[in-house]
C-alpha cells in the first residue's frame, strides 16, 4: 500500500480532520482518538494502537489494520469493506452495523466484540477468535470461518448462508433463529449450542458435534448430518424432512413432535431418545438402535425399520401402517394400541413385547418369536401367524378371526375371551393354554394338543375336535352343543356343568374326567370309557350308556331317568342317591358299586353282578332276579360297627327278595354275607368296647402307659363270643349254608388220623381193617377195639376223632336241615 509524507501529531490531539486518505499510520498510538467520520480509505494502520478509539461512521475501505489494536474501540457503522484485519485485536470493540464485507480477519481477536448486525459477507475469518462475541443479526453470508472459535458467541438471527466454517468451534454459542442455509460445517463443534429456530436447510453438518445442542424448532430439511453426534440434543418440533442422519448418534436426544418424514436414519443410534409424537413417515431406520426410545404416538407409516433394535422401546399408540420391521428386535417393547396394519414382521423378535390392543390386521408375521409378549385386545384379524412362537403370551380379548396360526406354539398362553372364529389352527400347540370364555365356534381343532388347557365357559359350538388331546383340560361350563367328541382323549378332563346337548360322545375316553353337574341329556355315550369319572349330580336323562365303562366312577346324585345302561360296567361305582331305579335297564356289572340308599324296588336284577356292592339302606322290595344274578362277596371298605349293621340289613333284604323269587341258592349266598357282616360288626363292637375300658395312667418317654382289664365287661364278652362263633361258623359251615365245608373238614380229619395211624406205632394185633377203615369207623361211631399199648398221642388222636366225628355229623345234619330255611 502507498504511504503519505504527511506528518501526524501524537494521538491525543488528532481528530478526523487531521487525517487524509491513504495515510500511513502504522504503529501510531491513536488510543482514545476521536476519528468519527474520518476518511481512512486505503490507510495503513498496521500495528497501530486504536484502543478505545472512536471510529463512528469512519471509512476504512481497503485499509490495512494488520495486527492493529482496536480493543474497546467504537466502530459503530464503520465501513471496513475490503479492509485487511489479519491479527487485529477487536476484543471488547463495538463494530455495531459495521461493514466488513470482503474483509480479512484472519486470526483476528474478536472475543467479546459487539458485532451486532455487522456485515461480514464474504469475509475471511480463518481461525478468528469470536469467543463471547455478540453477533446478533450479523450477516456472515459466504464467510470463510474455517478454524474459527465461536465459543459462547451470540449469533441470534445471524445469517450464515453458504458460510464455510470447516472445523469451526461453536460450543455453547447462541444461534437462535440464525440462518445457516446451505452452510458447510463438517466436523464443526457445536456442543451445547443454541440453534433453536435456526434455518439449517441443506446445511452440511457431517460428523459435527452437536451433543447437548438446542435445535428446538430448527429447520434442518435436506440437511446432511451423517455420523453427527447429537447425543442429548433437543430436536423437539424440529423439521428434519429428508435429513441424512446415517450412523448419527442421537442417544438421549429429544425429538418430540419433530418432523422426520423420509429422513435417512440407517444405522443411527437413538438409544433412550424421546421421539414422542414425531413424524417419521417413510423414514429409513434400517439397523438403527432405538433401545429404550420413546416413540409414543409417533407416525412411522411406511418407515423402514429392518434389523432395527427396539428393545424396551415405547411404541404406544404409534402408527406403523405398512412399515417394515423385518428382523427387528422388539424384545420387551411396548406396542400397546399401536397400528401395525399390513406391517412386515418377518423374523422380528417380539419376546416379552406388550402388544395390548395392537392392530395387526393383515400384518405379515412369519414365525416371529413372541414368547411372553402381551397382545391383549390386539386385532389380529386375517394375520399370518404360521409357526409363530407365542409361548406364555398374553392374548386376552384379542381378535384372531380368519388368522392363520398353523403350527404356532401357544403353550401356556392366555387366550381368555379371544375370538378365534374362522382361524386356521392346524398343528397348533395349546398345551397349558387358557382359552376361558374364548369363541371357538365352528373352529377346526382336530389333532390339536390341548393338554391341561383351560376352556372354562368357552364356546365350542360346532367345533371339530376329532383326535384332539384334552387330557386334564378344564371344560367347565363350556358350550359343546352338537360337538362330535368321538376319538377324543378327555382323560381327567373337567366338564363340570358343561353343555353337551346333542353332543356325539360314542366311544369317547373320559377316564377320570370331572363331569360334576354336567348336562348329558340324551347324549350318546355308547361304549364310552368313564372309568373313575366324577359324574356327581350329572343329568343323564335319556342318555345311552350301553356297554360303557363306569368303573369306580362317581354317580352319586346323578339323574339316570330313562338312561340306557345295558351292558354297562358300574363296578365299584358310587351310585348313592342316584336315580338308578328310573333307568331303562340296569347294568349287568354292579360289583363293588355304592348303591347305598337307592330304591331298587320292582327293578329287574337278572344277571346283575352285585358282588362286593354296598347295599346299605337299599330298597329291594319286589325286585326280580334269576340264577345269573351274582351275590358274590361282601362289600369292603367299612370300619364302624354301625356300617356293618346297615350292610347286614341290606344283605337280609337281598336274601328275602331272592327267597321270594325262589332262588334258594342265591338266597343262601345272601344269608352267608349277612352273617359275615354280623360277625364283622361283632368284632368291631368288641374292639370298640374293649378299648373303651383301657385306662391311661401316664405318658413316659413318649410311650403310653395303660392298664388293660384282665377280663372284658359283659357286653364286650358277648360281642367276643358272637364274633368267635360267627368266625367258626364261616369256616366250618359257610354260615350254615355250605355242607361241603363240613365234608371237607370230615375228610381232612379222617385222612389226617389215617396218616397218623399208618405212620405211628400200631397195636400188637394190627389195625382192624387197616388204618383207613379204623379211622372211618372211629369218626362215624367209635373205635372197633380200643387200642392198647400205644403212645399217648395216638390214643389222644383216637379220642379226639371220635368226638369231632360225632360233632361234625350232628353239624352236617343241622346244615342240611336248615340251609333251605332262608
Automatic annotation (TrEMBL):
Transmembrane portions of the chain: 792-816
Presence of the UniProt keyword Transmembrane helix in the record: yes
SUPFAM superfamilies with a match to the protein in the record: Pentapeptide repeat-like (SSF141571)
Pfam families xref list: Pentapeptide
UniProt keywords, alphabetically: Membrane, Repeat, Transmembrane, Transmembrane helix
Ranges in a coiled coil: none
Name of this protein: Pentapeptide repeat-containing protein
Organism field: Halorubrum distributum JCM 13561
Amino acid at each position: 500500500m502507498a504511504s503519505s509524507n504527511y506528518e501526524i501529531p501524537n494521538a491525543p490531539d488528532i481528530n478526523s480532520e487531521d487525517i487524509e486518505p491513504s495515510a500511513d499510520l502504522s504503529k501510531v498510538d491513536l488510543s482514545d482518538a476521536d476519528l468519527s467520520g474520518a476518511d481512512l480509505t486505503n490507510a495503513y494502520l498496521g500495528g497501530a494502537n486504536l484502543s478505545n478509539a472512536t471510529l463512528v461512521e469512519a471509512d476504512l475501505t481497503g485499509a490495512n489494520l494488520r495486527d492493529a489494536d482496536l480493543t474497546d474501540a467504537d466502530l459503530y457503522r464503520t465501513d471496513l469493506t475490503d479492509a485487511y484485519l489479519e491479527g487485529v485485536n477487536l476484543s471488547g470493540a463495538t463494530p455495531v452495523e459495521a461493514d466488513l464485507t470482503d474483509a480479512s480477519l484472519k486470526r483476528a481477536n474478536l472475543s467479546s466484540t459487539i458485532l451486532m448486525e455487522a456485515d461480514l459477507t464474504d469475509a475471511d475469518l480463518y481461525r478468528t477468535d469470536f469467543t463471547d462475541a455478540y453477533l446478533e443479526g450479523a450477516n456472515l453470508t459466504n464467510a470463510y470461518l474455517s478454524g474459527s472459535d465461536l465459543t459462547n458467541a451470540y449469533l441470534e438471527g445471524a445469517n450464515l448462508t453458504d458460510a464455510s466454517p470447516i472445523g469451526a468451534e461453536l460450543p455453547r454459542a447462541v444461534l437462535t433463529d440464525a440462518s445457516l442455509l446451505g452452510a458447510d460445517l463438517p466436523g464443526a463443534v457445536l456442543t451445547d449450542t443454541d440453534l433453536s429456530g435456526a434455518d439449517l436447510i441443506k446445511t452440511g453438518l457431517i460428523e459435527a458435534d452437536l451433543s447437548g445442542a438446542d435445535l428446538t424448532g430448527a429447520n434442518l430439511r435436506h440437511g446432511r448430518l451423517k455420523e453427527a453426534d447429537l447425543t442429548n440434543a433437543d430436536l423437539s418440533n424440529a423439521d428434519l424432512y429428508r435429513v441424512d442422519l446415517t450412523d448419527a448418534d442421537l442417544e438421549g436426544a429429544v425429538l418430540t413432535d419433530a418432523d422426520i418424514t423420509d429422513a435417512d436414519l440407517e444405522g443411527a443410534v437413538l438409544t433412550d431418545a424421546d421421539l414422542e409424537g414425531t413424524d417419521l413417515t417413510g423414514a429409513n431406520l434400517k439397523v438403527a438402535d432405538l433401545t429404550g426410545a420413546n416413540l409414543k404416538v409417533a407416525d412411522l407409516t411406511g418407515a423402514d425399520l429392518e434389523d432395527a433394535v427396539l428393545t424396551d422401546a415405547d411404541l404406544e399408540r404409534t402408527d406403523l401402517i405398512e412399515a417394515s420391521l423385518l428382523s427387528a428386535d422388539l424384545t420387551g417393547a411396548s406396542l400397546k394400541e399401536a397400528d401395525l396394519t399390513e406391517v412386515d414382521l418377518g423374523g422380528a423378535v417380539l419376546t416379552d413385547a406388550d402388544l395390548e390392543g395392537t392392530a395387526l390386521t393383515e400384518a405379515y408375521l412369519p414365525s416371529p418369536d413372541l414368547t411372553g409378549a402381551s397382545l391383549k385386545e390386539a386385532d389380529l384379524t386375517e394375520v399370518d401367524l404360521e409357526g409363530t412362537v407365542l409361548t406364555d403370551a398374553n392374548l386376552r380379548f384379542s381378535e384372531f378371526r380368519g388368522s392363520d396360526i398353523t403350527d404356532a406354539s401357544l403353550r401356556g398362553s392366555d387366550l381368555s375371551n379371544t375370538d378365534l372364529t374362522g382361524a386356521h389352527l392346524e398343528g397348533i400347540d395349546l398345551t397349558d393354554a387358557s382359552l376361558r370364555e374364548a369363541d371357538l365356534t365352528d373352529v377346526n381343532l382336530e389333532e390339536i394338543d390341548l393338554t391341561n388347557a383351560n376352556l372354562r365357559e368357552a364356546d365350542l359350538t360346532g367345533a371339530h375336535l376329532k383326535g384332539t388331546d384334552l387330557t386334564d383340560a378344564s371344560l367347565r361350563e363350556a358350550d359343546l352343543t352338537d360337538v362330535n367328541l368321538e376319538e377324543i382323549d378327555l382323560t381327567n378332563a373337567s366338564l363340570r356343568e358343561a353343555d353337551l346337548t346333542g353332543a356325539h360322545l360314542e366311544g369317547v375316553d373320559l377316564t377320570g374326567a370331572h363331569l360334576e353337574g354336567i348336562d348329558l341329556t340324551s347324549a350318546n355315550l355308547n361304549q364310552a370309557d368313564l372309568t373313575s369319572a366324577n359324574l356327581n349330580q350329572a343329568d343323564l336323562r335319556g342318555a345311552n350308556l350301553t356297554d360303557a365303562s363306569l368303573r369306580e366312577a362317581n354317580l352319586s346324585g346323578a339323574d339316570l331317568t330313562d338312561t340306557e345302561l345295558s351292558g354297562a360296567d358300574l363296578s365299584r361305582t358310587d351310585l348313592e342317591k342316584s336315580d338308578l331305579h328310573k333307568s331303562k335297564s340296569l347294568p349287568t356289572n354292579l360289583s363293588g358299586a355304592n348303591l347305598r340308599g337307592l330304591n331298587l324296588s320292582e327293578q329287574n336284577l337278572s344277571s346283575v353282578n352285585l358282588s362286593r356292592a354296598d347295599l346299605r339302606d337299599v330298597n329291594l322290595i319286589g325286585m326280580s332276579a334269576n340264577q345269573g344274578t351274582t351275590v358274590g362277596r361282601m362289600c369292603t371298605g367299612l370300619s364302624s360297627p354301625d356300617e356293618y349293621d346297615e350292610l347286614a340289613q341290606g344283605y337280609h333284604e337281598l336274601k328275602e327278595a331272592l327267597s321270594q323269587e325262589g332262588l334258594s341258592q342265591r338266597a343262601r349266598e345272601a344269608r352267608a354275607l349277612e352273617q359275615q357282616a354280623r360277625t364283622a360288626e361283632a368284632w368291631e363292637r368288641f374292639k370298640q368296647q374293649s378299648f373303651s375300658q383301657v385306662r391311661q395312667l401316664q405318658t413316659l418317654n413318649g410311650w403310653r402307659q395303660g392298664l388293660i382289664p384282665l377280663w372284658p365287661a359283659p357286653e364286650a364278652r358277648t360281642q367276643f363270643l358272637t364274633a368267635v362263633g360267627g368266625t367258626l361258623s364261616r369256616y366250618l359251615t359257610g354260615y350254615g349254608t355250605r355242607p361241603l365245608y363240613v365234608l371237607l373238614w370230615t375228610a381232612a380229619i379222617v385222612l389226617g388220623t389215617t396218616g397218623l395211624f399208618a405212620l405211628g406205632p400200631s397195636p400188637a394185633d394190627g389195625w382192624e381193617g387197616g388204618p383207613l377203615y379204623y379211622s372211618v369207623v372211629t369218626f362215624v361211631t367209635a373205635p372197633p377195639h380200643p387200642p392198647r399199648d400205644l403212645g399217648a398221642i395216638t390214643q389222644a388222636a383216637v379220642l379226639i376223632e371220635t368226638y369231632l366225628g360225632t360233632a361234625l355229623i350232628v353239624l352236617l345234619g343241622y346244615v342240611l336241615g336248615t340251609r333251605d330255611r332262608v
